[in-house]
Amino acid sequence: MAEKEKLRIDKYLWCIRMFKTRTLATEACKAGRVKLNGQNVKPSYEVKVGELYQISKGIEKKQIKVTAFLYNRVDAKTAVLHYEDLTPEEETYRFKSAFHSPVLQRDRGTGRPTKKDRREIDDLLDDNVDSFEQDDE
Known about the structure:
alpha+beta, 5 strands, elongated
């Protein structure tokens, strides 16, 4: 039973559904995208209850605190009970806002945009990006 008390960080991150596969969790640890107190963590590092980890997945950055061990991958509702998400709200909203940018649609059958249409679209997009950056400051 003593073996059940040890849990690798890569397996833990996979079990709580931070990564889709255990291999991805292992690679993230090796690449330095999983940190404990600012220090890179090896995939074989043993997880301890109460530790705070910083995880980077693409543009998403999360901070999680271990509240309980989980030895097998479970559904998302159960997995959430085994860690505490301490990611600041502004970081969470910044990540989500990248996916809510305006999507331009053209009427069906209008064909490709002309050069003039393309310039207008580019100007419109540039205005939206500028206003979004000003909101962040």
